[in-house]
Amino acid sequence: GDSVTQMEGPVTLSEEAFLTINCTYTATGYPSLFWYVQYPGEGLQLLLKATKADDKGSNKGFEATYRKETTSFHLEKGSVQVSDSAVYFCALSNSNTGNQFYFGTGTSLTVIP
Amino acid sequence: DVKVTQSSRYLVKRTGEKVFLECVQDMDHENMFWYRQDPGLGLRLIYFSYDVKMKEKGDIPEGYSVSREKKERFSLILESASTNQTSMYLCASSSTGTGAYEQYFGPGTRLTVT
């Protein structure tokens, strides 16, 4: 069945460091891919999305490119801030399975000044 | 601005109690979902609904039931709460049709069963 695998955390970075959080997926057909962010004590918020191969989603300095050849959707940011400290979830939605969502287990990021 | 609200942010209940968690969305979305979130396990789908009075089991429905009497409201019911149901519960909604319809989440209810 469909699934998402993302890198284990926790990740700790210094402010202004480069961030990569890896995400790979397994799915039939052409899923849509998402990154969600969860700040402490809150629900999940959509960070960015991509709906087809080679699409790049971007928001708040974060980017991710839908790579069908490597079944990946890695999250990147060039210079992280303390306010980026949160848990990040990769997810997919597949029309082949009724648009049900499949989430990764989440990667906790802490940015230190 | 889109909004999903949950009836409580924090809830403490005793073992054996019947627990109701309410979720309301104001986006006229067809689809609504209940997840539980536990450390190291990510989000696990409990139940979802594609329409009023419709429900489908997710991955972990045991010990839970749901009710959707109105389009905007989706309730999760713990028939007899147990300590292993202590968790964060997240409600979400989404539109339907073709295309990538993201899910919108509520703030979550942290339930403790003692």
Describe the fold and architecture.
The complex is a heterodimer of chains A (113) and B (114). Chain A is built from no helices and twelve strands. Chain A is mainly beta. In chain A, the strands form three sheets. In chain A, strands 2, 5, 6, 10, 11 and 12 form a six-stranded mixed sheet that branches. A four-stranded antiparallel sheet of chain A has the order 3-9-8-7, with no helix packed on it. In chain A, strand 10 and strand 11 (100-103) form a beta hairpin. Chain B has 114 residues and is an all-beta fold. In chain B, 0% of the residues lie in helices and 53% in strands. Chain B has strands at 4-6, 10-13, 19-25, 31-38, 42-49, 56-57, 64-70, 73-78, 87-94, 104-105, 109-113. In chain B, the strands form two sheets. In chain B, strands 2, 4, 5, 6, 9, 10 and 11 form a seven-stranded mixed sheet that branches. A four-stranded antiparallel sheet of chain B has the order 1-3-8-7, with no helix packed on it. The radius of gyration of chain B is 13 Å and the shape is globular. Chain B starts with a strand and ends with a strand. The model of chain B has no long low-confidence stretch (mean pLDDT 92). Chain A binds chain B through residues 32, 34, 36, 41-46, 49, 51, 89, 93, 95, 99-101, 103-106, and chain B through 4, 31, 33, 40-43, 45, 48, 90, 92, 94, 96, 98-108.
